[in-house]
């Protein structure tokens, strides 16, 4: 027994089984893979928000151009100004790489401008107002000018 204690006292290292090392290595590998997967997911998510913001801003820009040519726009001057200001804010945030803020401002602008376009198209036709809520499409009831732009 004393010989055994003497042989242990002389050792300053530990013995770890190969199976334990494999287990720790496997856990470490899984942890590294999870971290890498999380970082890739965050990167893709960031690009997705960026692309969504760009698409919404482009859509709102097209609506703004369409409304600029509208003769009946003065009735919606305050809403048009709010939509334009919100679109400018979205473009500024996009340039500053604040993609969630740009997306939010762009959606706000698109919502306001879309409501103006809807109101202008509904104003020309009372039949459209009745079918709009049931079919969500009223191309056949639009005024002649609006009908040609709706199909293109």
Explain how this protein is built.
The structure is a single chain. The chain has helices at residues 2-9, 18-68, 77-95, 99-123, 126-135, 144-151. It is mostly helical. It has a domain at 53-151. 16% of the residues are buried.
Record keyword descriptors for this entry.
disordered C terminus; mainly alpha
Task: Give the distance, in angstroms, between the N- and C-terminal Cα atoms.
Answer: 96 Å
Q: Show unreliable segments.
A: 126-152
Number of strands: 0
Rg for CA atoms:
32 Å
Largest sheet: none
Please outline the helices and strands.
Layout: H1 2-9, H2 18-68, H3 77-95, H4 99-123, H5 126-135, H6 144-151
Compose a concise summary of this entry.
This protein has 152 residues and is mostly helical. The chain contains 6 helices and no strands.
């Amino acid at each position: 027994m004393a010989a055994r204690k003497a042989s242990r006292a002389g050792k300053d290292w530990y013995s770890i089984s190969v199976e334990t090392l494999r287990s720790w290595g496997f856990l470490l590998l899984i942890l590294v893979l999870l971290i890498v997967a999380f970082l890739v997911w965050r990167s893709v998510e960031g690009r997705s928000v960026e692309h969504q913001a760009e698409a919404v801003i482009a859509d709102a820009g097209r609506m703004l151009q369409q409304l600029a040519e509208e003769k009946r726009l003065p009735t919606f001057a305050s809403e048009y100004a709010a939509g334009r200001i919100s679109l400018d804010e979205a473009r500024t945030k996009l340039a500053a790489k604040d993609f969630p803020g740009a997306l939010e401002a762009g959606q706000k602008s698109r919502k306001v401008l879309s409501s103006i376009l809807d109101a202008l198209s509904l104003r020309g036709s009372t039949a459209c107002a009745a079918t709009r809520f049931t079919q969500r499409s009223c191309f056949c009831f639009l005024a002649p000018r609006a009908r040609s732009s709706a199909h293109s």
